[in-house]
Write the structure tokens for this entry.
Amino acid sequence: MAEIAVTVVIDRLLSLLTEEARLLRGVHSEVEDIKRELSYIQAFLKDADAKAEKGDTISHGLQTWVQELRETSYSIEDLVDEYIQHFANRPRRSGVIFDFLSKVSCLIVKLKPRHEIASQVKDLKLKVGKLHEESSRYGFISSFEQGSGGSSDTINVQWRDPRVKALFIEEAEIVGIESPKSELINWLVEGAAERTVISVVGMGGLGKTTLAKKVYDNKKVVERFGFHAWITVSQSFKMEMVLQDMIKQFYETMKEPIPEGMDAMGVISLSGLLKKYLEDKRYAIVFDDVWGLEFWEFIKSVLPENKRGSRVVITTRNVDVGCAIRESRFHHVHNLQPLPPESSWELFCKKAFQDSCCPPELKKISIDIVKRCAGLPLAIVAIGGALLTKQKNELEWQKFNESLGSQLETNPHLESITKILCLSYNDLPHYLKPCFLYCAVFPEDYSINHAKLIRLWVAEGFVKGKKGMSLEQRAEEYLNELIHRSMVQLSEVDDRGRIRGCKVHDLMREIILKKAEELSFCHVLGDEDSSFNGKFRRGSIQKGTNTIAVETINRNSQIRSLLLFDMDAVPMLLTGISFTNFKLLKVLDFEDAPLNSVPEDLGNLFHLTYLSLRGTKVKMLPKSIGKLQNLQTLDLKHSPVDALPVEITKLKKLRHILAYSYHFNPDGGFYTGRGVHIGEGIGSMLDLQKLCHVEVNNGRGLIEELGKLRQLRRLGIVNLMEEDGPSMCASISNMKYLESLVIFSKDDGILNLQTISDPPRYLRNLSLQGCLRRLSDWLPELQNLVRVVFVNSRLSYDPMEVLQALPNLLELVLTNAYGGECFCFTELGFQKLQRLFLVNMMGLKTLKIHEGALPVLKHLEIGFCPQMEVPYGIRLLKTLTRIDFFGMPRKFASSMLPQHGQNYHIVEHVPHVFFHEFHADGHKILSLR
């Protein structure tokens, strides 16, 4: 807690000071002095946190000091940001040496008196000095003085570890593990003679230890392995102790005397002793609670591969650890899933009602409570046990549910939940903690848009640069690491396997929300706590926001981020606050708000890095937007904004312009796109990563300027005219990092795109709407394409010969793309294609599917092809799981009916076959079975 309370601010402060040191002469040495002081603070706080995690008590005096340090750090950050804004708005003076340690009176002229700033810095330095003097009294040491090994007192506190209880749970108390238990037992007692490693992966509290222990104690396993050991590794293991524990358990199992002098042996001697002892034996070892890859990298060299059927089981929260052991086909990974609703309810009733039935009056509230547990056995057991002590009345249980966040902190029955889940949080590296805490700003059970979260992290300054990677790519790594650590869960994955949405377990969210509020990192504003008087850096406006909550925001003029999730609060919010009072705002998110306009003083938000008006009714942006010199993301998706002010080209730090919407054309069965008009000058916005979509029918100059945007990853073009095709090709040839390209021709005219001399090698998504005449010669060079969409292409020849050779293609959509009668899918064609959509081709009669074509196709969609015959080759597509037929003739559909349809045998192997009919009164879906 102490480290995250200060480190976020220090990182921000250091980056700002470093930036200014490059701009101003004479402060480099002073900045380095401050860096050294703050580095000491960080090192101290890491040690304080480590002791707090083990249950040691930090004195009230030190806690007070940490709070004061945090508030002082925030104040200094505010002062520096105010200076940067002031400096940017004033003409620069050359030849002036600014002295930060004397409180930079020249830096903040007319903003803060010199003595006030000097006093604050002096106070900070005095506190650091005092801290240094008192560190020995508190027993804390700098992390620079700590060794790399684990703590020696791990065993002393293990009796308080709630994970130990999982080793002694009775069989009758366990629910929902029979299937994974059987699978694991089968992997242990059967299979090859080679040493096999099995990893059980899942978030904390999911029951990994309980499952592994029941497998370990199973009669079949015990009889199969005479030599067996159970080792609890944990975060702070010592390899000597792990090796000694294994040796002792093996010798004790065989009732053999433990080797003399073993306690005095080092790692190398112990490793040799263990390896020699096991070299001719069949053994089974469980390593419970493994946190890092380094443990397995060492321990695998100690365990002999003697082809006697030995087995190793690892439980871990980290997917990377679980997958790292998959070095051969003899290694298995079991991803433990949350309990399904039925098992969750059964377990809850066992604990809350001691196997009795749930009283009818408590059924609804009990279901709500179980839902919040989201299949986490630890939470269900702990909360059920806590409710067992409550009176069996609905009001009492409702109060418990509504105060679950505070209950996790104060109720001793729920202590195990907090401890287990906090272990994962405390294990996060420092750069991931603010990213994870940020998830607390989103509402409970909320699916967080993956791309939005990444852009917000970058806008907040949480993402550190890495050579050869964009900040967004680095943030993607951060998110993947949180997912692999089982901290963040996937909530939505698209057809191509890409992450679209993620979420945090509700109980974990309650824990990090409490941490975030204690650190003043963020605060959720709602009706239940709208009288909150504390300070916070980020405000999340959620359900039930009232005028008092708006007043709370007004009292925090130093607020950095404002995210809106309660649409009813918008009128109250906009009439109750003025942007002029929030000059330090960095993030302003009004997504889906009933907002018709934005005030002109929006331009006063100099530090704003993220502005979202997505889904609002805003039609026009104020010219003052040109003053937002730090803006990185401008999200106007699904808003009626159709033109950007010419001042937009002044924003040199813009990375994302998202300003498009799609409208479905029911007559043609395809979507049309709409973008925004941007004036010339966009070529100077060199940091742009995403530009979608932009209208280009106003002149060739804009198209030529696009070629200067060499960092683009995603580009959308609307209303491209035929005569502008060569210029567009020349610009695209400069975009070597481009991953997604969407182009709409003007009025479905000709797309003249034959002359791209250097096609983007990383392109993954290609969508072209307009007449192509023929496929471009550069198309086969795009070896990384995973999705291709051609609409209104009106090709005169079968394009499959070219398309089926694309080695990584997963999805192909052809709408009015071909005027011929036959598509031919040859042997070995489309080896990775999983989804094929063929729509609105009036002359298409047959699909020739040869043996070996489309070997992994899962979803086939055929629509509005009135002359098509039922493709006989469908019977060869054994991996198909779904077929959708849209607007096909009744005769076509009836031929596949199970009763008397002559073509039923063609589709009978496909689990899901649907027919979609369109009538004046709507859309009707019929299932084949």
Confidence is low (pLDDT under 50) at residues 23-28, 92-115, 144-160. The radius of gyration is 32 Å. DSSP finds 29 helices and 31 strands in the chain. The first helix runs from residue 2 to 23.
